[in-house]
Amino acid sequence: MTEPVETRAQRKERTRQALLDRALELHADRSFASVSLREVARAAGIVPTAFYRHFASMDELGVALAEDSMRVLRRMLRDARRNPSTDNARASLDILVRQVHAHPAAFRFVARERYGGVSEVRRAIATELRLFVSELTIDLGRTPALADRDVEDLEAAADLIVQAMLAVVADLLEVDRPGSAGERAVIERAEKQLRMIMLGIGSWKPPRS
Questions:
Q1: Model pTM?
Q2: 38 lies in the same domain as 115
């Protein structure tokens, strides 16, 4: 049985993905701003001029990496926030830990480049984070115990949760190995923080004007 012939579109997509993957690998021990177009092209097995068939610049490749990496994080946060409550903090963290183990390069890119030197990448990550907060705000408003809270208060709580999750990601990337005592300490601290946030919004009484 003959194997199907790869189409031109499939080859182009494969090369594009190779450029993204190699850029992530090169980014492992340095900032994205220090990764050159020639390095990425060479690592992907193409000549530098062929790079421009896929991306207009390294900044555009960086934005694509940010969007792809944030898509992984967004999927994880969507699962974690499906039933926001003080009781599912550990379940949410378990989802986060599994995703960080499965996609360390993508999460490292987000953690490092969120405040990195490429403005287009920073903006792409910030846009996705604002969307996360907006979606979580809606979910919190659907929680019966929080149904009477102002949108501004829910948004503040959602922002705290997302920031806490990002801090956990950064800490998990620094532990020596999965399942270590250091990782358990990170998870236990994060669980306490998430429970405190949820308990806080539940009992929050806005000041009277």
A1: 0.84
A2: no
